[in-house]
Amino acid sequence: MWENSSQIDNSLKDKGRWKAFMLLIFVFFAVSGFLISNSIGTMEISIPDILNAIFVKKEGPIRQVIWNIRLPRTIVAALAGANLAVSGAILQGVMRNPLADPHIIGISSGAGLAGVIILILFPHLTYLVPPVAFMGAMGAAVMIYALAWKGVQPLRVILAGVAVSSFLSAGISGLMVFYSDRVSGALMFMAGGLSARSWPHVRMILPYTIFGCAASFIMAEKLNILVLGDDIAKGLGLNVEMDRLILTAIGAILAASAVCVVGLLGFVGLIVPHTVRLLTGSDHRFLFPASALLGAGLVMISDTLARTLFSPQEIPVGIITAALGAPFFLFLLRRER
User: Fold this and answer.
1) CA dist., res. 110 & res. 289, Å (int)
2) How many CB atoms lie within 10 A of CB 93?
3) Is residue 188 within 8 Å of 132, Cβ to Cβ?
4) Which of 72, 188, 260, 287 is the most exposed place for a label (fewest CB within 10 A)?
5) What is the pLDDT of residues 118-139, one digit of tens each?
6) Peptide bond preceding 312 in cis form (omega within 30 of 0)
């Protein structure tokens, strides 16, 4: 018995060391993404110059480029990636479905339709796209829950989400068909992009990131219990439907805040949580921060590729994330057989 106990202790220590090692890898990936994103572009800037431009108040062209163009764009990319990844991790846990993410269950489509309406029908009000897209995403989330309401059952929420997503996507397609001469700006929004993102966009998304990530970390232990099943969760004292509703609302807020500033970035909320889960397990107390770091690094790297691969032509960053995500999605389907 003592031998078995010792073996269990050693196994737990090994898992703890592995998680700590992987967390360092994710931190390194995110920091590398930050430095690469600020370094590469029309003007190549060394890492010491980046750090001087950020932390030393010495005016010059490098500081102007970093402070006014690259740094806010990089921060928006990092926050959007973290929000989408944590949102996907929450929704997959709440729905107990590995394919759930904001894009698939319809929250992103709500933001997409609202943004496209502004861009196509009211092009002189383009500055309203972020707040209107946020309201569209939250409206879609409320619609999904209203249609699915009979208690908060994961399968009903997913089915309602797929139906709402199809309905809203039909609206987007209809607008693009009827106003085909005005779709260029809408196409960039639909494919996701970080062009011209600046400090006002940082200020727009940052409060939701802080609130959403803090709330998800607080709720992580409850989500660990929820994934065990409703009966066990009720037996352990959880208010299953209320906790599920709160977690879904947190996931919707995180996704909506990301989509409203960068457009529709598919697959980030799907591939990042799965990658972390495959590497380190399903403990949401670790999954949330690790997903936030990996999601931030992924979007920063993808954005760097999007604006440099075919320079001076910039392509939507959603094309890069989709190109990375599609093979992983097929791998996931194959693994689930």
Assistant:
1) 27
2) 29
3) no
4) 188
5) 888 888 887 788 788 888 888 8
6) yes
